[in-house]
Amino acid sequence: MKEIERQYRHPPDLYQEGEIASDIRTEELTLNMGPQHPSTHGVLRVVLQTDGELVLKATPYIGYLHRCAEKIAEKVSYRQFTPYTDRLDYLAAMNNNLGFALAVEKLGGIEVPARAEYLRVIFGELNRIASHLVATGCYGLDMGAFTPFVYCFREREYILDLFEAACGARLTYSYITIGGVREDLPEGWIGRCRAFLDYLEPKIVEYNNLLSYNHIFINRSGNVGVCSRELALAYGLTGSCLRGSGVEWDLRKATPYCRYNEFDFDIPVGRGEKGTVGDCWDRYFVRIQEMVQSVRIIRQALDKLTDGPVQAKVPRVVKLPPGEIYYEVENPRGQLGFHLVSEGGASPYRLKIRGPSFCNLSILPVVARNCLLADISAFLGSLDVVMGEVDR
Amino acid sequence: MTPSEIIEILKPHEGDGIVSAAADGTHPHVVVKAQRLAAVAAVLKTDWRLRFDLLRCISAIDWPAQNGVELSYDLISTSLGHAFAVKVMLDRADPQVESVAGVWPAAEWHEREAFDLMGVTFLRHPDLRRILLPEDWVGHPLRKDYPYPVAYKGLKLNP
Q: Chain A residues with CB inside 8 Å of B109's CB?
């Protein structure tokens, strides 16, 4: 038993002390992980320098999905850029739409009607749940559990149906536009949404029983890929990755937008329940808890939903006054920022997009140093990066 | 802390290093001299009244009319909850500035991106190379006068 434990559960520092390495002659091996690899969640290539099972160095190579979104922004009008934001973080297109719309509205001084603001909250939070469901399911898949993946995608399907009913699209919505949302809700939508929330809540308990408290899963993710609070802040981690490291920081609370200040919800943070604060399990579990909070927010927003217009009076060709703004919203993956510089024309002079996954991924070389090869996919999965946003 | 208070704290440290300051508007910031950036960054990070622990973004903006490339460092403090930005204006022909990766390691990738897409050189950067584009790419696409490539490795691109 002791022997097996040494073989499979040895902490990496055993290697450094030379206890294991001393009696075996090993050669360093350069291993290419990706660009096509199931656990890199897209086209990410990581070059791993390994010594046996130990990773000495990990160098990520990104850019495979670079589509020059920032250059395109300088050539199209403000309204025309909304569909491009869909394709940044394609698992949370609503939130991307919202971030861009808010940046334009804040710079242009456009007031959004109350109904549209609540609708934005509802759709943003629904998309957060959908995105976290993908993260949860895929993380189970990375850890070798197939069933939760299928369950999560089943629930996500209901959200996509709700989105389809409201705006016709299932992935790239362009629903939240400058000045409000594109259309009002179809008949019976609110009832369907409430029914879905009632259906989802017990399912989250089910995920916990299936995956979160699963012994094998905890062994694979607890105490693995630990990002301390200081490290997470230094590398600009945001969203559930930062909160997983125990930092209680959420833009919806810190600088509320879209009337988030009217809602009652908590910020879940990592507490090191199954290991150390900031390990993979903490980041994973923060997402599970955030789904519960999102359900709370949607319920309150549905109650508050007032009648009225869903679009402010915005001219067909949006022209912004000269000026600049840096605006961030809390996306499922972290803070999505738009640095918008206007020279008064009908298109941005410069639009810099801060993708949260881009910053979250930059911590990989630091954490991957001296960790086990199998833990790389555990760590990457817990970061939950979407390459569309990393490469833009 | 309001932007004007932040500027007041910075002034004694960097009296002559501050080129201009904007406390109002949609993007409060100070513009500092490029050679003073690293020192200002250290003050912003460590001063107990400021404590900007999270570097959110580094945006590079090309201004051919003013013959400059502007860098905007957007910061936020997760402990104190305030946000601010620092800017530098660099010479467009040869933009060079000290890296702040030593103060905020998050800058490492942001600076690589600015180097890649805008051609800004960051001195004493730990690993300055292209990040989004291939290593052999010519030019910096986010420059306003970037000539669109007609071919890449023998592959013709549509105009």
A: 358-359, 362
Close Cβ partners of A32 (under 8 Å, ≥ 6 residues apart): A45, A47, A48
Tell whether omega for the bond before A35 is within 30 degrees of 0, i.e. cis.
yes
Cβ contact, residue pair B53, A233, below 8 Å: yes
Facing residue for A362 by CB, picked from B61, B72, B109: B109
Please tell me the total number of residues recorded for chain B in this structure. 159
Distance, in Å, from the CA atom of A176 to the CA atom of A198, rounded to the nearest integer, reads 25
Q: What gap in Å lies between CA A112 and CA A178, rounded to an integer?
A: 9
pTM here is 0.87
Tokens 């490291």 belong to A245
Q: Which amino acid is it at A178?
A: I
Q: Kindly report, residue by residue over A260-282, the tens digit of the pLDDT.
A: 988 999 999 988 888 888 889 99
B69 to chain A, closest Cα gap in Å:
12
Question: CA-to-CA distance for A64 and A391, rounded, in angstroms?
Answer: 7
Best A235, A237, A328 residue to mutate vs chain B (most B CBs within 10 Å): A235
d(CA B29, CA A155): 45
ipTM confidence score: 0.89
- Indicate if the pLDDT at residue A259 is higher than 50: yes
Residue of B nearest to A66 (CA): B132
Mind listing the pLDDT tens digit for each residue in A323-371?
899 999 999 999 999 999 998 888 899 999 999 999 999 999 998 888 8
B positions 96-135 inside 8 Å of A (CB): 104-106, 108-110, 117, 130-134
Phi-psi region of A384 (alpha: psi -120 to 50; beta: other; left: phi over 0): left
For the range A253-262, what are the long-range contacts, defined as Cβ-Cβ under 8 Å and sequence gap of 24 or more? A254/B78, A254/B81, A255/A328, A255/B81, A255/B83, A257/A102, A257/A329, A258/A98, A258/A102, A258/A117, A258/A120, A258/A121, A258/A124, A259/A114, A259/A117, A259/A118, A259/A121, A260/A121, A260/A297, A262/A300, A262/A304
The CATH code for residues B3-156 is 3.30.460.80
Q: Are A326 and B106 within 8 A, CB to CB?
A: no
When pLDDT is averaged across residues B131-155 and rounded to a whole number, the result is 86
Which of B1, B2, B24, B26 is the best mutation test for A, with the most CBs of A within 10 A? Answer: B26
State how far the Cα of A293 lies from the Cα of A250, in Å rounded to an integer.
Answer: 12
Enumerate the domain spans of chain B.
3-156
Whether residue A25 contacts residue A385, with contact meaning beta carbons closer than 8 Å, is answered with no
Query: Which homologous superfamily does the CATH classification assign to the domain defined by A69-391?
Result: Cytochrome-c3 Hydrogenase, chain B (1.10.645.10)
Give the containing element (helix H, strand E) for B90. Answer: strand B83-91
The residue extents of the domains of chain A are 69-391
